[in-house]
Amino acid sequence: MTRGNRTISLAVLGAFLTTPAIAQRTDDNAVTSAEDAFGKSVGDEQIGLYNPGLVRGFSPEAAGNLRIEGLYFDQRAAVTDRLLDGATMRVGISAQGYPFPAPTGIADYSLRKPGGEFIASAALTYGPFGGRSAELDVQIPIDGDRLGATAGIAISKDGSTFGSSPNYEGYGASLLFKPHKNISIQPFWGHIDVSDEDVQPLIFTSGDFLPKKYKRSTYFGQKWAENAGRLETFGVVSRAKSGGFDIATGLFRSNSDLAKTHADLLFDADANGNVGQRIVVADRDDYSRSTSGEIRVSRAFVEDSRRHTIIASMRGRSLSRAYGGSALIDLGASVTGVEDFRPEPASIFGAKTFDKVEQTNVGLGYELRWHEIGELSAGVQKVSYSKLVTTPAGELPETKDNPWLFSFNAAVYLSSGIALYGGYTRGLEESDVAPANAINRNEAPPAIRTDQKDLGIRWNISPNVSMIAGLFDVRKPYFNLDAASRFRELGEIRHKGAELSISGEIAPGLRVVAGTVYLDARISGEEVRAGLIGSRPVGGFRLHTIANANWTFPWHKALTFTGRFERTSDRPANVQNTLFIPARWVGSLGARYRATVGTVPVLARFNVDNVLNTYGWAAGGNGFFINNGGRRFSLSIAADV
To answer: What are the tens digits of pLDDT across the range 516-565?
Structure first.
C-alpha cells in the first residue's frame, strides 16, 4: 500500500488504466529496454524487482522520492500514461552519479517527446477480467525540430481482481519547444477522471488463521461504496546551456480531488467466513494539492582523463491537504465472499482536518568521473521543513525540522567489465498516512529521518549480459497502530539484505531479465520489547525472485514468445508473527506479433497471467487480508499510422 489506505486504487489504477499504452511505438518492450532487474517501465509494461511503490521493502512513492526528468516532484495524484514514456528505478549502482540520491530509492519518470514526423498510435484492448479500453496517442511536428506536440486520450471500462468494473478516462498533452540548440522547454498537462470505482473489502480475521477462500472476481462489497475523483498533473521542464553552465528547471503541480472515497472493513471474520462487524468508512471532498519543483545549475571541468562537476540545487514544495470528518457506517454482522448488499444509509460527515507543509532543500554536490579508474559523488543539503495541522478542535503546535542531509557514493573500475560500488545516504522522507482502521485515519505524520548504506559489484559478463550483486541496509522510524488503534511511531525498522540482477541476451533471440532480493526486515522499539508485536513487519517476505524472458524466433522475427515468473517466500500475516502466508509462485505466458499492413506497423499481444490459477493472500501492515488475482487473459492490438 502507498500513502496508506483506500485511495490507493485511485493513485495506481488511475495512473496506468490497467491497459496497454503503446507509447507511439509498436515495438515498445520493457524487457529489451531494461539494463537491470531493479525496475523498468515502458508504456504499460513494467518489470523488475522494484517499482515506484516498492523498493527494498519501502515505497519511494510514499516517501516522496519521485522525479520527472530527474527533477524533484511531489506527487499527490498519479500521472497519466498519456504523458509518460516510462520510468526507471534509481537504486544501487544505478543511483551512481545521480544528483542527491534518496535512501528509499528514486523513481524517475520520463516524459513523452515528439519526434520529427507525425505518428498516430491507436490501441484496443480486451482484458484482463473482461475489461475494455481504447487509446489514441499522437505526436505532431509543428515547426521541424523547433516545435512539436504530443497528445493522448484513453477510455477504459476496467476489470479488477475482485469483480468491480470502474471507469477511467485519461488525457494528456505536451509541447516541446527548442528556440535554440542549447535550450528546450516542455510544458505538459495530464488529467484522470475516476468514477464507479468499487472498493475491495478488507478482511480482518478473529484469530491466527487465514480467511476462508472464496471465488475470486466476485464482487461482494457494497454497491454504493465506491470512489470517484479527479487527478491532475501539469508543469514545465526546461534545460539550457550557457557559458559552460548546464541549467535544468522543473515546476510541477499535482492535485488529487476526491469527491468520495470508501473503505469496506470486515472485522472478526471466523474460519467459516462469518463476519462479526462490518464497517464502511465514508469520506467526502478530501483533497491533496502540491506545488513542487527544482532548479539545478552545474558546471563541468575537464582535467586530462578526469571530469569534475559542481552541482548547485534548490528544490521545494508547498503542500495542502484536507481530510477527516469521516462517516462510520455500521452494517453489523456479514459474511465474506458472498453478496450481502445493503441499502445506502444516510451519512453524517464531520469537520475536516487541514495540513500545510512547506519544505525547501538547498544542496551542493560534487561529481568526479575518472576514465578507466572510477567515479565519485558527494552531496550535502540543508533542509527547512515545517508542518501545520489544524483540527476541528483547533490548531496544533507547528512541527519544524532543519536537518543536514549527506550522501556519498563511489565506484571503482577493477577492469573494463567489473566495478565495485558503495555509498551512504541520509534523507528526510514522508511516512505512510494512517490507515482506514486507525482512530486518526488519513493523518500524515511529520517527515522522518532515514539513512541507507549499500555496497556491491557490477560485472559485464559479456558484451550482451551483465550482472549486479549488492548488499544494503536501510533504517527508518517505524509507524503502525498501537494498542489503542492510533497510528504513531512505535520504534525503528531496519531492512538489511542482498540483491542480484542478471540481464541481457543469453542466446540469439533470447533476452532475459532476472533478479532476486533477500530481505531481513526487523522492527525494534517499545511494543517489541513489551512482547505485543513480533520483530518482523506484516506482509514482508524474505525472498522475492522474478524472471522475464523474450524469445524471438530466429527464423521468424515477427513472433516473440514472452514469459514471466515470480516467487515470494512465506511472510508474516499478523503483528505477533504467529501466522504466516505460505510461499507461492506465479507464472505468466504470452506472445507478441509484429506485422506491417501496407505501410502501417501493427502489434498484437496476448497474455495469460497466473497460468496455473494459484490462489494466495496478501496481508496489509495494519492487519487486513485480500486475495490475489486468478487466471486472466488479455489481448491488445495497436497500430502506428
So the answer is: 999 999 999 888 888 888 899 988 889 999 999 999 988 888 999 999 99
- Ramachandran sector of residue 461 (left: φ over 0; alpha: ψ -120 to 50; beta: rest): alpha
Name the DSSP letter for residue 439: T
d(CA 475, CA 353): 30
What is the signed CA dihedral for 199, 203, 204, 206, rounded to 10 degrees?
150
Residue 37 region, left (φ>0) first, then alpha (ψ -120 to 50), else beta?
Answer: alpha
**Domain contains 374:** yes
- The structure's pTM equals 0.90
Residues forming beta bridges with residue 595, ordered by sequence position: 602
Beta bridge mates, 636: 125, 605
The number of distinct structural domains making up the chain is 1
The residue segments making up the domain with residue 318 are 8-640
Beta strands at 202-205 and 245-269: parallel, antiparallel or unpaired: parallel
Amino acid letter at 401? D
Residue 2 is assigned to a structural domain of this protein? no
Q: What is the 3-state secondary structure (H, E, C) of 472-526?
A: EEEEEEEEEECCCCCEEEEEEEEEEEEEEEEEEEEECCEEEEEEEEEEEEEEEEH
The whole-angstrom separation of Cα 132 and Cα 168 is 11
CA dihedral 62, 268, 277, 538 (to 10 degrees): 0
> Rounded CA gap, 357 and 103, in Å?
21
Kindly state whether residue 119 falls inside one of the protein's structural domains. yes
Beta strands in 270-417 (DSSP E): 274-303, 306-323, 327-335, 353-370, 374-391, 394-395, 399-401, 404-413
The model's pLDDT over 92-118, given as tens digits with 9 standing for 90+, comes to 887 777 778 888 889 999 999 998 889
Torsions phi, psi for 522 (to 5 deg): -135, 140
CA distance 350 to 352: 7
Total count of residues recorded for the chain = 641
Strand runs labelled E in 526-622: 543-553, 556-568, 571-572, 580-581, 584-597, 600-609, 617-619
Cα-atom radius of gyration of the chain, to the nearest Å?
24
CATH number at residue 162: 2.40.170.20
At residue 26, the 3 state secondary structure works out as coil
**Does a structural domain hold residue 172?**
yes
502 forms beta bridges with 467, 514
Q: Which residue has the cell 490501441?
A: 123
Counting beta carbons within 10 angstroms of the beta carbon of residue 540, is it exposed (0 to 12), middle (13 to 18) or buried (19 or more)?
Answer: buried
